[in-house]
Amino acid sequence: MDYESLLAHRTHTMQASAIREILKVASSPGMVSLAGGLPAAESFPLEIMEELTGAVLAKYGAQALQYDASEGFLPLREALVPHLAARGVKATAEGITIFSGSQGILDGIGKILISPGDVVAVEAPTYLGAIQAFNPYEPRYAEIETDGDGLIPESLDRVLADQRVKLVYLVPTFQNPTGRTLPLDRRHAVAEILRTHNALLLEDDPYSDLRYTGTPVPPIKSLAPENVVYSSTLSKTFAPGLRVGLCVAPAPIQRWMITARQGVDLHTSTFTQALAAEYIAAGYLERQLPRILDIYRPRQQAMFDALAVHLPEDFAYTRPEGGMFIWVEGPPGFDAEALQRRILERGVAFVPGKYFYVNPEGKQNTFRMNFTAADPATIERAIAIVGDAIAEELAASR
Amino acid sequence: MDYESLLAHRTHTMQASAIREILKVASSPGMVSLAGGLPAAESFPLEIMEELTGAVLAKYGAQALQYDASEGFLPLREALVPHLAARGVKATAEGITIFSGSQGILDGIGKILISPGDVVAVEAPTYLGAIQAFNPYEPRYAEIETDGDGLIPESLDRVLADQRVKLVYLVPTFQNPTGRTLPLDRRHAVAEILRTHNALLLEDDPYSDLRYTGTPVPPIKSLAPENVVYSSTLSKTFAPGLRVGLCVAPAPIQRWMITARQGVDLHTSTFTQALAAEYIAAGYLERQLPRILDIYRPRQQAMFDALAVHLPEDFAYTRPEGGMFIWVEGPPGFDAEALQRRILERGVAFVPGKYFYVNPEGKQNTFRMNFTAADPATIERAIAIVGDAIAEELAASR
């Protein structure tokens, strides 16, 4: 049968992601992967899972195994109210919607807003998973320029003035892929620009709880609540295998997202939502988070230290106060894909930066490295290999 | 802010489902709901959940909480091989894909196949959740005629001859909403028609394990494997709150569905998949299924018995050998929505049949009743109320 002829037009926008192939190679035995964005297995609260399951079954019984509302499991939404308030996001339980990971929120917002040809504004570079979620709805992209402090407000203002934009998509805190955090003054500027242009922002905030140093910055949602759909997840502070994402959106947007997701997956697993509810409400998260930070802080420091030693002077890298990634920019003309081939042979993997741009031209000199999945000694060894390979690559290309 | 102006064209196809409002009313305290499609809480293997969780954590540890492949958790896919083979569906572990409920399969196939205006052929009546999944991709529908044995093969042949059809959607066994099962000879005819027209069928099979009497009929997938995407779920034989659906598709279709779902939810909960793997592989399902059937068999019988007593002679109803639903057809002109209003006042709810048609005209005389969620005595009481209300409604409309 000729299956290809049955495909929808949109399906040709879904490229079997090259990064997926990289991650497949990166996960082969013996490989040190700085490529993925995996939480450390050691960060999972394995030792309390049986206790937590017991508590959930005792408390909710059959309800934890039954169909539930598309909006989300009410005890989880209630437990999230103070958790989000502590971040500066004010919401009632009814105002919080649960999705199947924050990926489900990206799909949901794309589905209700993007008609083919509509414009979505994204940072350059931006999160690859967002592009994967939006592409099937066939948007055009407008790129917002960034510098060391993240998105440049004047560039956002220009993009919004130049054309009708359906959605602005940002990861303002410990961005994936750069690790950059937008400073408070820029957040105020972004909030003002959104209001001026009546624009809607999807603020993707998976990492803000993973802060190793410095002071928290309030989310843009807290500065322009009517203009922001706020998205977060328990994947980094509980476990990604539960697939629990959460969303605080203006009420009309929330209603449409709930209607849309009924057709997509009905609702998120009641059982994993009940585990998450108990994890937060009974104080497990509060106890676990410092442990998670204690695992990641020295890993990030090890990467900083190794980069200082092993990277040539004309290579710049970000120094985020949290999150999971460091972003490296080589001199103009440097080929991160060639470097990738060299280090793969020696058992180390990262992701070339070009995959994080909707327009990758001229970005071949960048790459992203994750520091949460390997221990400090392994990171030190891996960065030394990267350093050696860079020296060889520079010598070869001269 | 004017949020409505931001909506995509497709979003106007997503009507906040009227059935959802019915289900909301139906789930209010004191109401006897024959409206939903909920498994009985008593059918869940609650007493083994702690043991099962313990086994999963001992066996898989952190892997059960980590990100996993979009294709599905390999031990679950392996466990499903003999389970599906017993139904007549031959597949390797690699050929089985796990989705977030079978709703995720409906969304996935719609997403990769349907461009706006493409034709999807569905039974009249058909499963409402499929319409909700397909609508956002803006198909046109062609209706396939049915009789007491389900779809009429000649009608399918005509529909496929008349126009290019991207997808045929059927629930051949214990259909939702009618409970009807397509007999073997018609399945052979359908297989032949699919082959003749090079057509692709989505065979939705959530209920075939719920057989109370009679002999199993092989799935159409077993008769035309190249032309069929086979979909099933563990929602009826384990628990819907886990959101585990499974799919066996021709390889090219499988690949595109996996690529599409990466943007939708990345993957189904690893933890609930691991629970499902252990539930099947360790023999829990085999022990639980007879118990589930023992709960539902007398409930169905109670509904049959009560209908025989309380329904007027010119009301026809289906007598399925399994599944969760019975379908009632009143005389022409009978108004099931007026009946619905009458019984709601007396604390009983069902779903008017018109919601299951893409073209509901002239179908106001039908309704669907679920028999799995209430015990036999309650069903007897509820059907007596329905019978009284029908008599009043007939008297009032004379």
A few lines on this structure:
Two copies of one chain form a homodimer. Chain A folds into two domains: 154 residues, Aspartate Aminotransferase, domain 1; 239 residues, Aspartate Aminotransferase, domain 2, CATH 3.40.640.10.
Structural notes for this entry:
The structure is a homodimer of 398-residue chains. Chain A is of the alpha/beta class. Chain A folds into 2 domains: 3-45 and 287-397, Aspartate Aminotransferase, domain 1; 47-285, 3-Layer(aba) Sandwich (Aspartate Aminotransferase, domain 2). Helix content of chain A is 40%, strand content 14%. Chain A has 12 helices and 15 strands. In chain A, the strands form 4 sheets. Chain A has a 7-stranded mixed β-sheet, with helices on both faces. In chain A, helix 5 links the parallel strand 3 (119-123) and strand 4. In chain A, helix 6 (153-162) runs parallel beside helix 7. The longest helix of chain A is centred in the C-terminal third of the chain and has 27 residues, at 284-310. The mean pLDDT of chain A is 96. At the A-B interface, helix 2, helix 4, helix 5, helix 8 and helix 9 of A face helix 2, helix 4, helix 5, helix 8 and helix 9 of B.
- End-to-end Cα distance of chain A, whole Å, is 52 Å
Structural class of chain A: alpha/beta
CATH superfamily of the largest domain in chain A: Type I PLP-dependent aspartate aminotransferase-like (Major domain)
Give the number of domains of chain A: 2
